[in-house]
Write a structure and sequence with these properties.
The chain starts with a helix and ends in a 6-residue tail after the last strand. The protein is rod-shaped and about 195 Å long. It contains 14 helices and 15 strands. It has four domains: 145 residues, 2-Layer Sandwich (Beta-Lactamase); 104 residues, PAS domain (Beta-Lactamase), CATH 3.30.450.20; 95 residues; 126 residues, Histidine kinase-like ATPase, C-terminal domain (Heat Shock Protein 90), CATH 3.30.565. By secondary structure, the chain is of the alpha+beta class. A five-stranded antiparallel sheet has the order 2-1-5-4-3. Strands 7-6-10-9-8 form a five-stranded antiparallel sheet, with helices on both faces. Strands 11-12-13-15-14 form a five-stranded mixed sheet, covered by helices on one side.
């Protein structure tokens, strides 16, 4: 519009120059018709036409002649009869308004060449300020017109896009007043369009603004051209009820540094935020329950550990009590019952010698043999219950003796070997390895169908190693671990001396049992 005003100003200057030229001509100039007096109009390249008081063509500039298709012969002709190259249906009406009412009018017209012109009609006054007619000035505004049309189309397109957005959108000026908003904004919040435009956004009633925080964010976005997206407002909205709105926006520069607008988009995130809050509440409840469960599990685990330790302590006491009871029974059998049987055997011998009958002699001899057999069996049972040889001669000798006795009894060849330099072994370790050897060889006899076995005893890196190996049918160690009470007993004995229990076997490959027991540290 500023360019249009400048063009009209230039047209006014040209019209004033034409007035001066005409006044010179009316004072008696003898120049030919349609020849500008002096240089008053010759230097003006603006289409200008002069009409007298009777609405006849009085004068036109060369550029006006080319544009309106005027000829010298048209001078003096009524305007109503001229066929101008620029159609203006109300031209005569505008001329009458200029001559009779001294009214100036403006209009934009499109010529036959397709270009746009701005036409201005104003009164033509003589020097004595009497009306002499009218002045018509034209200026080519085709480029401006097309620019305005393109601008209008772009603006309409932008408004169409804004209106098409499903989310409420508002456009604010630098004072945070509403410049425009889309239909969704007015429909969503039930605001009147005419009353809303020009009103400060934060003064809109019904929206639960956190005015201080919202104003600060909007001001920051305008001053720093900094987009924002995390601003949320929550509260009761008219018609909508409780809602959570997330505001997003950014600044748009309108060309003029003083003209800055801010686009603000409203997103209803109520469902999303409520779902997030429910999820957080559920997560918090789960974490609380998890902590409670973990606490209960820790307590249960502590109880289990205590129960396990109590069970192991009880097992240790039972094993100790069992060994003590075995030792007592073995001592009673050996020292008491076996001695009585020995006395009985001697009494039977004396009785045999006092009898003269051969039949009685044979019966007494049979009785003495039976007593001797019972005595040997009691001696063997006492040895099984507690081998005194273990205490008096050591582990190696006790194992060698047991392996020899086992081979004779079970008809399985058992080879025993031990390191030559065998130091003093603690009693509890020696008893543990002896009992493990007993249980291990019993398992060989019961389950392996082996023809031979090997027992080795050695020391390596301050650890005592016992190995029992057979050439039997083997077994699945996983299955045996589930049901083998003997294995459980052996493992518990080894654990009580802080040892290591390793069993390896497979079908058809025999079995190997390795026991590692730590020895006391050597004295410094």
């Amino acid at each position: 519009m500023r360019l249009t005003r400048e063009l009209h100003a230039q047209s006014g200057i040209a019209a004033a120059a034409a007035n001066r030229g005409i006044r010179e001509r009316l004072r008696g100039s003898s120049r030919p018709a349609n020849t500008a007096p002096g240089d008053s109009l010759s230097n003006i390249d603006v289409p200008i036409v002069l009409i007298d008081r009777t609405f006849h063509l009085q004068y036109f500039t060369p550029s006006a002649g080319r544009l309106l298709r005027l000829r010298i012969g048209d001078l003096g002709s009524p305007v109503s009869r001229l066929k101008l190259g620029l159609e203006m249906p109300d031209l005569c009406k505008r001329l009458r308004a200029a001559v009779r009412d001294l009214a100036s009018t403006e209009a934009d017209l499109q010529g036959s060449n397709g270009q746009w012109y701005s036409i201005q009609i104003r009164p033509h006054l003589r020097e004595d300020q009497q009306i002499a007619g009218a002045v018509i000035s034209l200026h080519n505004i085709d480029q401006l017109k097309r620019m305005l049309q393109e601008e209008r189309r772009s603006r309409d397109l932008c408004y169409s896009i804004v209106e098409a957005l499903p989310e409420p959108l508002v456009i604010l000026d630098s004072s945070l007043r509403v410049v425009a908003a889309n239909r969704s904004f007015y429909d969503e919040f039930e605001f009147d369009r005419q009353r809303s435009e020009g009103k400060p956004l934060l003064e809109f009633a019904g929206i639960p603004w956190n005015a201080g925080a919202v104003r600060a964010v909007l001001r920051l976005a305008l001053s720093r051209n900094q987009a924002f997206s995390g601003l949320e407002i929550e509260g009761e909205f008219p018609r909508l009820g409780h809602r959570i709105m997330r505001l997003r926006g950014r600044r748009i520069d309108a060309g003029d540094p003083e003209r800055k607008i801010l686009l603000v988009l409203f997103n209803d995130v109520t469902l999303q935020k409520m779902a997030e809050r429910r999820l957080l509440a559920a997560q918090s409840a789960i974490e609380k329950n998890l902590k409670s469960t973990q606490s209960s599990l820790r307590e249960t685990e502590a109880d289990l550990l205590r129960s396990r330790e109590d069970l192991r302590a009880l097992t240790a006491r039972l094993l100790t009590t069992q060994e003590e009871e075995r030792r007592r029974l073995s001592r009673d059998l050996h020292d008491d019952i076996n001695q009585k049987l020995a006395v009985l055997e001697m009494d039977a011998e004396r009785l045999r010698q006092s009898l003269l009958s051969p039949q009685a002699d044979a019966a007494v001899e049979s009785l003495r043999g039976s007593v001797a057999a019972v005595s040997n069996e009691i001696r063997r049972v006492a040895y099984q219950l507690h081998p005194s040889i273990l205490e008096h001669l050591g582990l190696a000798v006790a194992l060698r003796s047991y392996c020899s006795e086992f081979s004779k009894r079970e008809k399985i060849r058992v080879q025993f070997s031990a390191s030559e330099q065998m130091e003093k072994i603690p009693d509890e370790v020696a008893l543990c390895l002896y009992r493990v050897t007993q249980e291990g060889l019993r398992n060989v006899a019961r389950h392996s169908a082996a023809k031979q076995a090997r027992v080795t005893l050695g020391i390596k890196e301050r650890r005592l190693r016992l190995r029992i190996r057979d050439n039997g049918v083997g077994f699945d160690t996983n299955e045996v671990r589930k049901t083998g009470i003997g294995l459980i007993s052996m493992k518990e004995r080894v654990r009580l001396v802080n040892g290591e229990f390793v069993l390896k076997s497979a079908h058809g490959e025999g079995a190997t049992l390795d026991i590692w027991a730590p020895l006391p540290k050597e004295p410094q």
